[in-house]
Design goal:
Length: 148
């Protein structure tokens, strides 16, 4: 009878507590996403047809966050420039890689450190810039053309 103390310990453990209920799951309240910064001052005004601050999914790409989109028209053709400010260089690089994957047979343009190719029938040229203005915040941007 070396283990005589097990029986009282088991009885005590069953007698001490009643049925325990699992804690109710807490409803997760998702904080609203902050609006992207308005960087419209960084876009050229010449031939600009419109400027838009998009809260989320720039140019309809579900993997892109919000940013600034400017539409330009010249000689019967239109094109768009966009700018997305990222929190750090790593995030900007990952978004560039996602966008590169969305382009058909993307080609690297070494002089800009970006990619050029088609997304469907729309040509895209996308590149990252290390900083904009005095703030040292990485940015991803580019352009896409639309035939008129």
């Amino acid at each position: 009878m070396r283990f005589w103390w097990i029986i009282p310990a088991l009885l005590a453990s069953f007698a001490c507590g009643g049925p325990t209920q699992a804690p109710a799951p807490e409803a997760k309240v998702e904080a609203p996403k902050p609006k992207p910064p308005d960087e419209s001052r960084r876009f050229p005004k010449e031939n600009q047809a419109s400027m838009e601050l998009v809260d989320d999914h720039v140019l309809g790409k579900d993997f892109l966050p919000g940013g600034n989109v400017a539409t330009y028209e010249k000689d019967g053709k239109s094109y768009q420039l966009f700018l997305i400010v990222m929190k750090d260089a790593e995030t900007a690089s990952l978004k560039m890689f996602d966008l590169k994957g969305a382009l058909t047979d993307a080609k690297f343009v070494a002089s800009f450190g970006g990619y050029y190719r088609l997304d469907g029938e729309t040509p895209w040229f996308v590149f990252a810039k290390e900083r904009i203005g005095r703030r040292r915040r990485p940015a991803a941007g580019g352009s896409r053309s639309r035939g008129a």
